[in-house]
Amino acid sequence: MNRVLASVCLIVLNACAPGAAPVPVATSPAAAAPDADLSHVFQGFVFAQLADRISRAASDTVHRPWQFDVAPQGPSWAEFTARLQQALRARAVTPADTLFSVASVGPIVVAGDTAMAEVSVRDVWRCPPDRQERARGGTAWAQSVRQPDGTWGRAVALRGTAGNSAPCLTRGP
């Protein structure tokens, strides 16, 4: 992990300054919570996916609209999501927003010595005249393998998809 990303992780996990009001977090049905070590491995992967956006937010004074869809995976994830919202200077999406960002983390699924989770970061435009939503971004399946000493290895992208649909296109009269 490079020095900048390590600093961002430290800031978000330990000492983010209070910002905007908390952003609502959508959750899916509860799954068994992974152990703390495994949660930290996947939280590091989420940081890596959002590092450029966190870096930009650090020098920005505007709170940007974000939607967070995080599978409930124990108390450390609720705290992690709250601190991530602070680091991104996130605010809740409103009906008036025509552009917002979405970060999604699926449940961590463990099978034998392998753990996987789906992580997605995308931007969504609400296009006129009917405010149809169009998204641009990508999804990655993150995987971690249990090491011989019993610890979990760093999560890496197993495979991913990129969605590069065009933002709103308007035609002249």
Give a topology summary.
Elements: H1 3-14, E1 25-26, H2 36-58, E2 64-70, H3 75-87, E3 90-91, E4 99-105, E5 109-111, E6 114-127, E7 132-145, E8 156-164
Parallel strand pairs: 1-2, 2-3, 2-4
Antiparallel strand pairs: 4-6, 5-6, 6-7, 7-8
Helix pairs in contact: 1-3, 2-3
Structure report:
By secondary structure, this protein is of the alpha/beta class. The chain has one domain (3-164). The chain contains three helices and eight strands; from the N terminus they run αβαβαββββββ. Strands 1, 2, 3, 4, 5, 6, 7 and 8 form an eight-stranded mixed sheet that branches. The longest helix has 23 residues, at 36-58. Mean pLDDT is 78; it is low at 1-31.
Using only C-alpha atoms, the radius of gyration works out to 17 Å
Fraction of residues in β-strands: 25-35%
Low-pLDDT parts are 1-31
Number of strands: 8
What spatial form do the alpha-carbon principal axes imply? Answer: globular
Helical segment count: 3
Largest sheet: 8 strands, mixed
What percent of the residues sit in helical stretches (DSSP H or I)? Answer: 25-40%
User: Cα distance, first to last residue?
Assistant: 51 Å
Give the domain tally: 1
What is shown here, in short?
The chain is built from three helices and eight strands; from the N terminus they run H-E-H-E-H-E-E-E-E-E-E. The protein has 173 residues and is an alpha/beta fold.
